[in-house]
Amino acid sequence: MYEFAFDPLALSAGIAARLIVSPETISVDIRAIQAWHDREFELTAIRELGENWDGYGADAPSVAVMDAASLFLAICKKINCTHAPVRIALSPSGVLSVDWLYGDTLVRAEIEDPNEIEWMKATPGRSTEFFTTELIGAGPEIEQVQTWQPAPVAEDELTLAYAR
Fold first, then answer.
1. Position 27 confidence tier, pLDDT thresholds 50, 70, 90
2. pLDDT at 5
3. How far is CA 79 from CA 4, 18, 58, 73, in A?
4. Domain tally for the chain?
5. Residue 62 belongs to what domain range?
6. Residues 50, 60: contact at Cβ < 8 Å?
7. Hey, how many other C-beta atoms are within 10 angstroms of the C-beta on 31?
8. If we measure between CA atoms, which residue out of 112, 108, 86, 87 comes closest to residue 12?
9. Which three-class secondary structure string do you get for 35-51?
10. pLDDT digits (tens, 9 = 90+) for 49-84
11. Please, which contacts does 148-155 make with residues 24 or more away whose CB atoms are closer than 8 Å?
Protein backbone atom coordinates (compact mmCIF):
# COMPACT_ATOMS: atom_id res chain seq x y z
CA MET A 1 0.00 0.00 0.00
CA TYR A 2 1.29 3.48 -0.87
CA GLU A 3 0.60 6.52 1.25
CA PHE A 4 1.58 10.13 1.02
CA ALA A 5 2.92 11.62 4.24
CA PHE A 6 2.80 15.33 4.93
CA ASP A 7 6.09 16.51 6.37
CA PRO A 8 6.29 20.17 7.48
CA LEU A 9 10.08 19.80 7.74
CA ALA A 10 10.25 18.89 4.06
CA LEU A 11 8.48 22.14 3.15
CA SER A 12 11.65 24.09 3.79
CA ALA A 13 13.30 21.95 1.11
CA GLY A 14 10.40 22.61 -1.28
CA ILE A 15 8.82 19.18 -0.87
CA ALA A 16 5.32 19.10 0.64
CA ALA A 17 4.72 15.38 0.58
CA ARG A 18 6.82 12.28 0.30
CA LEU A 19 5.91 8.74 -0.63
CA ILE A 20 6.22 6.32 2.27
CA VAL A 21 5.78 2.58 2.15
CA SER A 22 6.20 0.93 5.52
CA PRO A 23 4.20 -1.06 8.06
CA GLU A 24 4.24 1.95 10.40
CA THR A 25 2.16 4.03 7.98
CA ILE A 26 -0.36 1.29 7.39
CA SER A 27 -1.54 0.91 10.99
CA VAL A 28 -2.21 4.16 12.78
CA ASP A 29 -0.95 4.43 16.34
CA ILE A 30 -3.65 5.06 18.98
CA ARG A 31 -1.53 7.93 20.36
CA ALA A 32 -1.68 9.64 16.96
CA ILE A 33 -5.46 9.25 16.86
CA GLN A 34 -5.73 10.74 20.37
CA ALA A 35 -3.37 13.62 19.48
CA TRP A 36 -5.44 14.53 16.40
CA HIS A 37 -8.61 14.34 18.49
CA ASP A 38 -7.03 16.70 21.07
CA ARG A 39 -6.01 19.22 18.36
CA GLU A 40 -9.47 19.11 16.80
CA PHE A 41 -10.96 19.72 20.27
CA GLU A 42 -8.59 22.69 20.77
CA LEU A 43 -9.65 24.16 17.44
CA THR A 44 -13.33 23.75 18.35
CA ALA A 45 -12.72 25.47 21.70
CA ILE A 46 -10.87 28.35 20.00
CA ARG A 47 -13.71 28.74 17.46
CA GLU A 48 -16.14 29.32 20.35
CA LEU A 49 -14.12 32.13 21.97
CA GLY A 50 -15.97 35.43 22.11
CA GLU A 51 -14.95 39.07 22.30
CA ASN A 52 -12.42 39.89 25.04
CA TRP A 53 -11.57 36.18 25.44
CA ASP A 54 -8.21 37.02 27.00
CA GLY A 55 -9.51 39.70 29.38
CA TYR A 56 -7.46 42.37 27.55
CA GLY A 57 -9.84 43.25 24.72
CA ALA A 58 -8.91 40.58 22.14
CA ASP A 59 -11.34 40.17 19.26
CA ALA A 60 -13.21 36.92 18.74
CA PRO A 61 -11.46 34.65 16.22
CA SER A 62 -12.25 35.36 12.57
CA VAL A 63 -14.67 32.89 10.99
CA ALA A 64 -12.57 32.90 7.79
CA VAL A 65 -9.35 32.09 9.70
CA MET A 66 -11.09 29.35 11.68
CA ASP A 67 -12.52 27.81 8.50
CA ALA A 68 -9.06 27.95 6.88
CA ALA A 69 -7.54 26.34 9.98
CA SER A 70 -10.11 23.52 9.88
CA LEU A 71 -9.33 22.88 6.21
CA PHE A 72 -5.58 23.05 6.86
CA LEU A 73 -5.79 20.52 9.71
CA ALA A 74 -7.98 18.20 7.66
CA ILE A 75 -5.41 18.29 4.84
CA CYS A 76 -2.54 17.67 7.26
CA LYS A 77 -4.37 14.78 8.89
CA LYS A 78 -5.26 13.18 5.57
CA ILE A 79 -1.70 13.43 4.26
CA ASN A 80 0.04 12.34 7.47
CA CYS A 81 -2.24 11.04 10.17
CA THR A 82 0.69 9.68 12.22
CA HIS A 83 2.20 13.02 13.24
CA ALA A 84 -0.30 15.42 14.78
CA PRO A 85 0.64 18.94 15.82
CA VAL A 86 1.59 19.31 19.49
CA ARG A 87 -0.35 22.53 19.99
CA ILE A 88 -2.87 24.89 18.44
CA ALA A 89 -3.16 28.41 19.84
CA LEU A 90 -4.77 31.74 19.04
CA SER A 91 -2.95 35.02 19.58
CA PRO A 92 -4.81 38.13 20.76
CA SER A 93 -4.22 39.61 17.29
CA GLY A 94 -6.21 36.75 15.69
CA VAL A 95 -3.34 34.66 14.28
CA LEU A 96 -3.85 30.93 14.72
CA SER A 97 -0.64 28.93 15.17
CA VAL A 98 -0.17 25.20 14.71
CA ASP A 99 3.05 23.72 16.14
CA TRP A 100 4.90 20.49 15.42
CA LEU A 101 8.02 19.24 17.23
CA TYR A 102 10.60 17.08 15.51
CA GLY A 103 13.27 16.43 18.11
CA ASP A 104 14.55 19.91 18.99
CA THR A 105 13.11 21.49 15.83
CA LEU A 106 9.93 23.54 16.07
CA VAL A 107 7.84 23.90 12.92
CA ARG A 108 5.05 26.47 13.20
CA ALA A 109 2.31 27.20 10.69
CA GLU A 110 0.49 30.50 11.23
CA ILE A 111 -2.88 31.28 9.69
CA GLU A 112 -3.94 34.91 9.52
CA ASP A 113 -4.99 35.07 5.88
CA PRO A 114 -7.58 32.45 4.85
CA ASN A 115 -5.51 31.27 1.86
CA GLU A 116 -1.92 31.67 3.09
CA ILE A 117 0.10 29.67 5.56
CA GLU A 118 3.15 31.39 7.05
CA TRP A 119 5.76 28.86 8.20
CA MET A 120 8.63 29.05 10.64
CA LYS A 121 11.23 26.34 11.16
CA ALA A 122 13.47 26.90 14.18
CA THR A 123 16.31 24.61 15.23
CA PRO A 124 18.74 25.62 17.99
CA GLY A 125 22.11 26.64 16.57
CA ARG A 126 20.75 27.12 13.03
CA SER A 127 19.19 30.04 11.21
CA THR A 128 15.43 30.26 11.64
CA GLU A 129 13.64 29.87 8.31
CA PHE A 130 10.44 31.65 7.34
CA PHE A 131 8.39 30.88 4.23
CA THR A 132 4.81 31.01 2.96
CA THR A 133 2.60 28.59 1.06
CA GLU A 134 -0.93 28.82 -0.31
CA LEU A 135 -3.64 26.81 1.39
CA ILE A 136 -5.62 26.24 -1.81
CA GLY A 137 -4.78 26.87 -5.41
CA ALA A 138 -1.33 26.73 -6.92
CA GLY A 139 -0.12 23.85 -4.77
CA PRO A 140 2.64 23.33 -2.24
CA GLU A 141 5.20 25.58 -3.91
CA ILE A 142 7.07 27.83 -1.54
CA GLU A 143 6.44 31.48 -2.30
CA GLN A 144 9.19 33.11 -0.29
CA VAL A 145 11.93 32.02 2.06
CA GLN A 146 13.74 34.18 4.61
CA THR A 147 16.20 33.28 7.32
CA TRP A 148 16.97 35.02 10.56
CA GLN A 149 19.80 34.31 12.93
CA PRO A 150 19.94 36.24 16.19
CA ALA A 151 23.10 38.26 16.67
CA PRO A 152 25.58 36.65 19.05
CA VAL A 153 25.62 38.16 22.52
CA ALA A 154 28.94 39.09 24.06
CA GLU A 155 29.85 37.11 27.19
CA ASP A 156 29.89 40.23 29.37
CA GLU A 157 26.32 41.05 28.24
CA LEU A 158 25.15 37.59 29.34
CA THR A 159 26.93 37.96 32.69
CA LEU A 160 25.27 41.33 33.24
CA ALA A 161 21.85 40.02 32.23
CA TYR A 162 22.03 37.06 34.63
CA ALA A 163 23.43 39.18 37.47
CA ARG A 164 20.24 41.27 37.65
1. low
2. 47
3. 6, 9, 33, 10
4. 1
5. 3-163
6. yes
7. 10
8. 108
9. HHHHHHHHHHHHHCCCC
10. 999 999 999 989 999 999 999 999 998 888 877 789
11. none
